[in-house]
Design goal:
about 150 residues; alpha+beta; Aminopeptidase; 7 strands
């Protein structure tokens, strides 16, 4: 498996993974394209395998937000094709993204959102020392189903 920066030519394969993982709540192709093209504010990595290392089996998107004295990033999405889950792909993507954010973007804090019932993802994030933050404002149904996690740089 190889982790590399995503390219525009990867978009159809990224969308296959996206639809496989989030069939009812997926990001649009146009939004994914915007993330791919925004090299200054976005880290977009793919995990590839196969003989030519071109088959995309997972991806991670992190958006950088620098305000005054604080540099933060949000992991917008992490997805691994269902047939490749629980094989270390998500771990490798997350580890590579965190290192890239700390080393290249000088990020001090990383946040992400996760569904409360996504126990495998929550276990993965806890292994990387993500901690529960304040709950989402508001009392709507969507906010009740997810939680915000954060990780401070060490």
């Amino acid at each position: 498996m190889k982790i590399r920066i995503a390219e525009t030519k990867d978009l159809p394969f990224i969308m296959q993974v996206e639809l496989d993982c989030f069939p009812n709540d997926y990001y649009t192709q146009s939004l994914m394209r915007r993330y791919l093209l925004d090299k200054n504010r976005v880290i977009f990595l793919v995990a590839c395998e196969g003989k030519s290392q071109k088959k995309v089996v997972g991806y991670i998107v992190a958006e950088v937000n620098k305000e005054k004295d604080v540099s933060m990033a949000e992991i917008v999405s992490l997805a691994v094709a269902s047939q490749h889950q629980r094989q270390g792909v998500g771990r490798a993507l997350l580890e590579h993204a965190i290192q890239t954010l700390y080393d290249q973007k000088k990020i001090q804090q990383i946040t992400l959102q996760v569904q409360k019932d996504n126990y495998p993802a929550k276990a993965l994030y806890s292994q990387f020392h993500f901690m529960l933050c304040d709950p989402f404002p508001g009392d709507n149904e969507e906010n009740k189903q997810r939680m915000m996690l954060k990780k401070e740089s060490t």
